[in-house]
Design a protein that fits this description.
Shape: globular
Number of strands: 14
Radius of gyration: 17 Å
Strand order of the largest sheet: 6-5-4-3-2-1-14
Structural class: alpha/beta
Largest sheet: 7 strands, mixed
Strand content: 25-35%
Order of helices and strands: EEEHEHHEHHEEEEEHEHEHEE
Length: 255
């Protein structure tokens, strides 16, 4: 099972329009962050998690030409507004790419991007809406899901298990529920939302994430969805040896 960090930035990315690099050193390449997304590969299958507005650049950089399925954690713009960039993926595939999400998220995506899901006179459907209800297999990995509080909505967190190894992806949430704790307990790798140091009403912050990771007993923690206050080297120096900021293009193999 391999996970690639396609992007680890917040909704505005780093540098940010208007305020630029903030506290981040522009000479450190790991501070340049596209919108948050990952690619999970297992057993010859590829799952894209979220398709934000940087998707084309992310997939070209990663050398990705084919995707088997796409999962959308929630329908905020930074997690789904690159959906049109999946058109050439579907054309190369010769048919629509399954798009997985909770049913209510799919309903809103089908309203917002109706042309992506329908057969028109000129274009075939790009995506096939597929509600997530239970567990999911991707190659040899088994994925389980949990709904996470994200302000007034929920986002979808996931855990992937394969061959005795486990990884979790917890993006866009602000508090830990009992269901989430049970899902993420004992992970080998936890990729977790960590917007900034100060508390935020819809995102996790540094002290909370470190505390949760200790309580969960995770083996390795990678911080993602980072804003321009989170300089890579400064943050790395503050963290315990089992934790680190994620960076765009990072790959982790669990085997």
């Amino acid at each position: 099972m391999k996970i690639r960090i396609l992007g680890c930035g917040t909704s505005t990315g780093v540098p940010r329009l208007g305020t630029g690099w903030g506290a981040c050193d522009p000479e450190e390449p790991r501070n340049r962050r596209l919108r948050s997304s990952i690619l999970l590969e297992s057993g010859g299958e590829t799952l894209l998690v979220d398709c934000g507005p940087d998707l084309r650049e992310q997939l070209l950089t990663a050398g990705v030409e084919s995707i088997d399925r796409v999962l959308v954690t929630h329908d905020h713009a930074d997690h789904c507004h690159g959906i049109d960039d999946l058109r050439p993926i579907a054309q190369a595939k010769g048919g629509p790419v399954p798009l997985l999400a909770r049913a209510d998220v799919l309903d809103r995506l089908e309203q917002r991007f109706r042309y992506i899901f329908i057969d028109t006179r000129f274009y075939r459907p790009v995506m096939q809406a597929t509600p997530i209800q239970g567990d999911l297999s991707v190659g040899e990995a088994i994925l389980r899901f949990v709904d996470q509080p994200h302000g007034g909505i929920t986002s979808l967190g996931m855990r992937a298990d394969e061959g005795g190894y486990s990884a979790g992806y917890a993006i866009d949430f602000h508090e830990m529920t009992d269901e989430m704790f049970g899902m993420y307990r004992g992970l080998d790798l936890w990729i977790c939302d960590c917007l900034r140091r100060a508390p935020h009403p819809t995102h996790a912050h540094l002290d909370a994430v470190i505390g949760w990771a200790k309580d969960l007993g995770v083996g390795q923690l990678l911080l993602t969805h980072l804003d321009n206050s989170m300089d890579y080297k400064t943050l790395s120096a503050e963290l315990p040896d089992w934790a680190a900021p994620a960076y765009d293009g990072q790959e982790v193999v669990l085997a």
